[in-house]
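step: validate -> pass
step: tokenize input -> pass
step: predict -> running
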Amino acid sequence: MSELVYQLKYALAGIISRKSLSGGIIVTMGVTLAALFVAASLFYVLVVKPLPYPDQDRLYRVDQIQYDSKNKPNVNAYGYAGLIHLYRNQTVFDAVGLVDYNEEILSSNATQPRVFTSYVTPDFLTTIGAWTERGRLFGNDEALDSYGSAALLSFDAWQRLFGGADDILGRKLQVRGRSYSVVGVMSKAFVEPELAQIGRKTDIYLPWDHNPVGQNQRRSWTDRTNSRVFIGKLKAQYSAAQAEQITTQMLNQQWQINTRSIGFYRGWQIKMSLKSFAQVILGDSKKLAYLLMVCALSLLLIAVVNVANLLLSRAFERKREFAICASVGATNKDIFRAAFTESALLMLCAAFFGLTLAHLANGLMQRYLAGVLPLGNAAGTGAVLLGLGVVAALALAYVFAHISTYVLDFRQLKEALSGSGKGTGNQISKRVRNAFIVSQVALASIIVFVNLSFFVSANRAIDDPDIMITDNLISVRLSLAGDRGPSRDTNRSLMAEIAKKFQYMPIVEGVSLSRSPLDSSFNTWSLVELGSMMRVLPEAKNIDENYLTIAGAKLLDGRLLNAVDTVDRRRVLVINDVLAKRLAPNGSALGKLLSFNASAGANMAFEVVGVVKGMQLPGEHNIPPRIYRPLRSNDSLIIKLKPHQSLSKARIAAIVNDVSRQFAVYDHALVDEQKQDKLFNQYLSAAASIALTLVSLLLSAVGLYGIISYNIALRRTEIGIHLSVGATRRDVILLFLHDLIKPMALAFAIGAMATVFLYGYLEQYMQSVMVQFGFILGLLTFGFMTAICLFGTLRPLFIGFGRNTIDLLKGQD
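step: predict -> pass
step: emit ->
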């Protein structure tokens, strides 16, 4: 024990004596380990850690996919009647559950906040293993067709909306005009499965029976709403494929019977698809976890080479010290132990620094990336990271100690006492130095090239000129202020009056009674072109006559919609050029007739009256075929302001109330902010790419400068000899650059081959960036690395040129 304490004190004294060297090592490894710890925590959550649900391997989301007459998938959504039929009659699951996701106003709260609601059957909660902090879960009184009036709060909603009130049980809530009594609060530790949208957290759970579906629609087999989710715990004797086959046969038979009288669905069928909870919740995020781990490990390799070089310098600095130890009987193990103790202290300090940075980074990710990555299962990673930090520190210390002592010739240590001490004895071999250079340049080149490619890809997506213009646009959504609203015709008249009120404002350029395309999805229509009987599946959006003008659509052929089209709801369409090229590859698509049902005749078809240039939505990589139908919205507006103007939510609410107090402003958002939200992944990718590129270049610069300058320091005497016999500075510079060419060429060759190998995997995420810009990005990478190597060579050379030639010949600083 005393010997260990002595070694620790001796190692600590050595670290303190070289504060600059030690600080550089701790910071370099600390930052690199922080990146590794962040990547490892994501990898643990997204790849390794089990989901927090009982029997997760048997839990599935069951989807219903409708296929058209050409056996092409049309929509992934349940008809209400079919969903209930499956719930009541399935035979392949031990337990099942239903949930309908919505977003509504909590009218019983004074501030009337928007809340996320989930209408669930009691078995949904028991199947996912939910439990409460207070009160109870739903039971038989809230089962299907019981129409119970209970409500469950999430732990966060209890704290946020009710201040964690102790008397929360029995409190009355009002949603959509109905009153509910709080019977329980979900546990703080409960992790809601993200089955419909990443980052969505339910505030209030309500009984399934009260979901906002009309009575007529509840009997329908043909409505297509994708907010409903069916989950099941598969019986042990069935595989997922068998369950798909059995449920498809059972449900498709009933679907055919109930839709046979509808000509539109002639030849259609439905198929069931089972996706495990892991597939649904984690999705493609596993690929991101692997990619980040590869990047973090690559950075770690660069940092290891850097620190190994610094510690090698430290080892040769201590050569005489080790020689004295060897002369008095120290063994290989003793010298290794001394080097390991010093390295271990350095690495533990670096690991602690890295864990601190990683903790801060993980907190930022939980705050800002919860809507992008499935991080709900991230609790409990701290202990894992702490263990990883200790193991990584000791493993790296062993590697560094082994490298430091391996290059020392132990048998010659005793003889080193008689050496000159001017660095002319035992030195790091040229082969080892070149290996360091090759590894540094190759790894850094790969990382820099790949990250530059990701940056260009993300930047192209952000600045794509085809993306819809969103400047000065405000999206407004209204909701009913009371339990009952006006009739449909009255509603339309009131909305038209509200639009006029805004249009007359001096700061307003235009108003459209349409939903913002960035807060509502397009529907998919299955249409037949009556002339050629071609079936097309365009995305459809209901708009008024002002929408396309406000959105900045460019008319290519025909006309836009007008007020008569929308008021009379004429059967006309404006389509984008993508669909127009499919309908008429060599001519005009104007006059084409599109119908849901070819047998219904031309009178029931929609006529194409205009073609506009396709508008790409933020986050999309391609523009799909789209159609625009004249139909004004009953609850939404888009307001286009004149430049440098603003309109507050309070002012909007006042104008709406001047027309009718039957409406409340449900949502108010700048469309440009909605655009930025849609592009968040691209911004994140661009920022991460630049950060990784800068870190890679910084680590490479530090490492290469250390290696090259150390090599030059070892050859001071050689430089002095060349200068003393008449060589010019230019001759000396060319000599050292010539020695650098071979390892750099080898490094670039290795980097190029590795990039080609990675191309097939990475290109799918970059939209042909590596093909279109590969040469330019390669030149940039080559330029960055060459500049670093030149700086590492020229700076120490010019420092040496400033010294006396006699000092150079003696090998003195």
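step: describe -> The chain is about 50% helix and 15% strand.
step: cleanup -> pass
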